[in-house]
Amino acid sequence: MTPRRAVLDRDATRDRGAGIAAVSASRNCGPVLRAAGVDGLVDVRVDGLDAELLGLAGKPDPALFVEAAHRLGVPPGRCALIEDALVGIEAGHRGRFGLVIGVDRHGRISKDMSGRGAHIVVGDLADLDVVGRHEGTR
């Protein structure tokens, strides 16, 4: 695997009171995160195994993302969702997530992402600055 140029700064994110979830319809999400060496960066994982166990629909249904927000102890409206697929953007919009961020690495689907519900679209996570601080619990 070739790592992407940017990854959210986990410590900066946590310093602001935020948790990090990984959401994937894949049943192999855990092994993939471990193989990439990033499994320790997430607080919560919701994947295809969870979807099967809990009967959760896949994207564009927001059920996987809503379950991740629930596990983080945060209502979807107070969550930022970062996605690189149109169906994930649509799921975030349908789930009424507070901020839906599209990542269009090749600059080909930015308009489609906006049309499906992305509040902002960036080319790389390095284009984002995590600011603000949430006082108290999530």
Mean pLDDT: 88
Unreliable sequence segments = none
How would you spell out the order of helices and strands?
HEHEHHEHEHE
| Secondary structural class | alpha/beta
Straight-line N-to-C gap:
33 Å
Overall shape: globular
Q: How many alpha or pi helices?
A: 6
Main sheet: strands, sense, barrel: 3 strands, parallel
Give the spatial strand order of the biggest sheet: 3-4-5
Number of strands: 5
Per DSSP, what share of the residues sits in E-state strands of 2 or more residues?
Answer: 5-15%
Question: What does this protein look like?
Answer:
The strands form two sheets. The protein has a three-stranded parallel beta sheet with strand order 3-4-5, covered by helices on one side. α2 (29-36) links the parallel β1 (21-23) and β2 (44-46). It is an alpha/beta fold and 138 residues long. The protein has helices at residues 10-15, 29-36, 48-54, 63-72, 86-94, 110-116, and strands at 21-23, 44-46, 80-83, 99-103, 120-122. The chain has six helices and five strands, in the order αβαβααβαβαβ. The N and C termini lie far apart (33 Å). The relative contact order is 0.18. Helices cover 34% and strands 13% of the residues.
